[in-house]
Amino acid sequence: MLLLSLRCVWGFAPKSIPANPTARTSTSLDASNYLEPGDPVMLVGPGFLQLVIAKHMKAAGLKPIVCAPQKKLDSFFENLLIDEELKKDSTIGMPENGDPYFGELKGVVFCAEDAILPSDFVTRVLDFTHEGKSVFADGAPSRTICLLPVDGKVQQEKSNSWMPIFNNDRTIDMNWKNFREKFQNHAVYKSEGGVGSIIRFGSLFGGSYDGPEFLRDNDLALEEGMYKMSLEQYRDLRERSFDRYKLSPQVLLGNAINPKPPNQEKMEKEALKKYPGEIQEAFKILGAYPEIDRANRHSVAAAVTASIMKPVEEGIVPKEMTILSKATSELPNDEEWGEMFKNPGTADWPDPFLFVPESYGLEVAQ
């Protein structure tokens, strides 16, 4: 088992990994450029988002392999990811010849929430071979997704991560930039018919059960202890609010946010002033009210799962897209994801003058 190095963060010693000269360039719409149920996919980049993606992929029939340092894996399965099957398939590095899943991997998702992955991980993972053999079933991944934070955020949110990052903002931005460029310059992304795509995410919240019953019924969520793993005051309430009210995704083309129209706040203040404060607050968690630059981890995980099971083709899956959330407590089905990928766009900002609280079951004192 070859250990992947995360420098001082993971503490592994880096090892030389020979490059794989084979790069997939097929554009045919067959299983060579998307994943199917039963296919194993490596999730690289420890964090809450990685674990939520693993849950969603397992529910979709894929075989997610959580790749993280042993100390983190122990914490994941003891506190957050109570799942013996996922635990059995977890790993601290890329499998070598003779290890489970060597020569069988079909996909890779780089899914770190924070800027902790060195850029050379792109080639270390995507070009990995051992004893002259590729770790991938077809000599190269059938589908690859790189998750990156969206640029140009309006709201600067702190990360809810138990893993301390001791970099300043400039270093963090540079780390993300280096990783993005390395991925975009790899054949899996830049070659004609390349099977790599980028999914951008807004500031992340949620990922546990405190929402609609289907999250628990379908085993899509982490244990509720994740809400408490930040020292930020009231963070757990904000995390829970996203799982309760803001599950539905917006799919935006490219690297984009959904800023408020210039007159939106003024309109809301004027239109809602006749209502008590709790009704005014309710307006923002009803009627698909959009997020500017924030996303539920469930929204992102569901988008990654739906995307990796489709080819990167014009009109099927965008080469680069952004996932944000909006105030609806639902996740799309596969057909709905297909339409959203085909026709990406921001959610509309609602007209507060058309807001009727009673239509949402809210009682307003006369």
Structural class: alpha/beta
Question: Sheet with the most strands?
Answer: 7 strands, mixed
CATH fold-level name of the largest domain: Rossmann fold
Helix content: 25-40%
Number of domains: 2
Cα shape: globular
Q: List unreliable stretches of 5+ residues.
A: 2-30
The first-to-last residue Cα distance is 69 Å
Oligomeric description of these chains? single chain
- How much strand content do the residues show? 5-15%
CATH homologous superfamily (4th level) name of the largest domain: NAD(P)-binding Rossmann-like Domain
Question: What string gives the helices and strands in order?
Answer: EHEHEHHEEHEEEHHEEHHEHHEHEH
What does this structure look like?
With 366 residues, the chain is of the alpha/beta class. The protein folds into 2 domains: 21-258 and 291-342, 3-Layer(aba) Sandwich (Rossmann fold), CATH 3.40.50.720; 264-288 and 350-360, no CATH class. The chain has 13 helices and 13 strands. It has helices spanning 7-10, 48-59, 70-80, 84-89, 121-126, 169-184, 187-190, 213-217, 235-245, 264-272, 277-282, 297-308, 334-342; strands at 2-3, 40-44, 63-67, 93-94, 107-110, 129-130, 133-134, 143-149, 196-201, 203-205, 248-253, 294-296, 320-326. Strand 2, helix 2 (48-59) and strand 3 form a beta-alpha-beta unit. Helix 2 packs across helix 12 (297-308). The longest helix has 16 residues, at 169-184.
